[in-house]
Structure formats: structure tokens, C-alpha cells
Amino acid sequence: MKIENKIETLEALGYDHIGTSSNTPMRTDAFKLSEKEKISIIKEDVRHIMETLGLDLTDDSLSGTPNRVAKMFVNEIFGGLDPKKKPSSSTFDNKYKYGEMLVEKNITVYSTCEHHFLPIVGKAHIAYISNGTVVGLSKMNRIVDYFAKRPQVQERLTIQVVKELQAVLNTKDVACVIDAKHLCVNSRGIRDIESSTVTSEFGGKFKEEATRREFLDYIKLDTKF
User: Among 113, 126, 131, 151, which is most buried by a count of CB atoms within 10 Å?
Assistant: First the structure.
């Protein structure tokens, strides 16, 4: 009876956009297996799923799919689970004494919904105010990409990006806004292709209305080349 109740609860929660922690839920033995071993196991699991669905894996178009999916999971779309792949973020002295906020907007987000393993696609906008150090512009994109390459909840992704930059820059004055489409909403269930999800995390001075408003006004700018 307890197991049935738990299954019912999990099924109900699975259709809502929820998260349990700002840290990605990971087992303590998550890195016991090598990447090669993980690919081998996942390949057989994907093969089993496809065969269960009734697909003919002897067909030339399908025969390589299990291996492709396994390699994609481990090396690409879930590569951000591996802490060894975390981008190094060297900081530099703010020698030019730039004292205003720096905004990096329209950073492409490709992630995966952890509830249905369907894509999350959108844009991230980041800002920080230097307290004496700065970070290379591309590093902000790489930080977003690293945390996005996991099974994710958008709220968690937003928080993780801010926390990482706060640690790198040694300042609380960091903000992030993400606007993204979730294919678990757009392609299944309600199948609303127009809706998107917006999340935000504001730290330090960005909790002040004037600073937050300035940041939000910047990301509205229509940049064209």
C-alpha cells in the first residue's frame, strides 16, 4: 500500500514544474563508472526501450541509434554532471575601474527537463557588479552551458548560475534571468507552443529595486548587427 501511494505521489509531482534542491540530485557513487562503461550500459537500456516499443533494430536507420543516444547522453547533453568538465573561470583585476554593472544577454540555453527528458531551449541574461575583479565574457556563457547540460529544473539552473558566478567573482552582486520554452509543455500534455517560462535570481545589490530595474531595462535592448 505504501509503495502504491508513493507511486501515485511521484506521478502527480512529475507533471508539475517542481524541484527539490538548488543542487542537482546526485548519488554518492555517481562517478564510480567510467564514461565508456556508462555508454555501454545506456546503449543496452536504449536498445531495450526501442525493442519494447516494437521497433526493428535490424533496420539500417535504427541499428546505430542506441549507441548514438548513449554517447549523446554521456558526452553531450548530460556532460555537465561531471565536475571535471566544469569550466575554469580565471578572474582579473578590474584595473580600468569599471564600476557599473556588466550585462551579458541572450546567452543560448540548451537543457533537458528532468521530469520528461525533453529539451528546454531559451536565453539567459546575466549581470554582475565588480568588487575589484572581472571574469572573461565567454566564461559566463560557458558557466550557463555547463549547468544546462544536466537533467534540470529551470529554477535550479538559474540559481546555480548565480551561485557559481558569486563564488568566482567573490561578490553577491550577481543576477540571472532565463526565458525558455519547455518541450514537455510545448510538445506533450497541454501542447501549448506559445508559452515560455521566465525565472530569475537576484543577489546583493540586485535585490534593490533601482538596480534590478536597470538590469531588466538593459536586457530589453534590441541588439542588431
Answer: 126
Q: What is the DSSP letter of 187?
A: S
Predicted model pTM: 0.89
Cα–Cα distance, 127 to 213 (Å, whole number):
12
Residues 189, 206: contact at Cβ < 8 Å? no
Using the 8-state DSSP alphabet, how is residue 73 labeled? I
Backbone angles phi, psi at 201, to 5 degrees: -145, 125
For 34-77, the pLDDT digits (tens) are: 999 999 999 999 999 999 999 999 999 999 999 999 999 999 99
Name residue, grid cell 561578490: 171
- Is the CB of residue 130 less than 8 Å from the CB of residue 102? yes
> Which are the catalytic amino acids?
113-116, 154, 182, 184
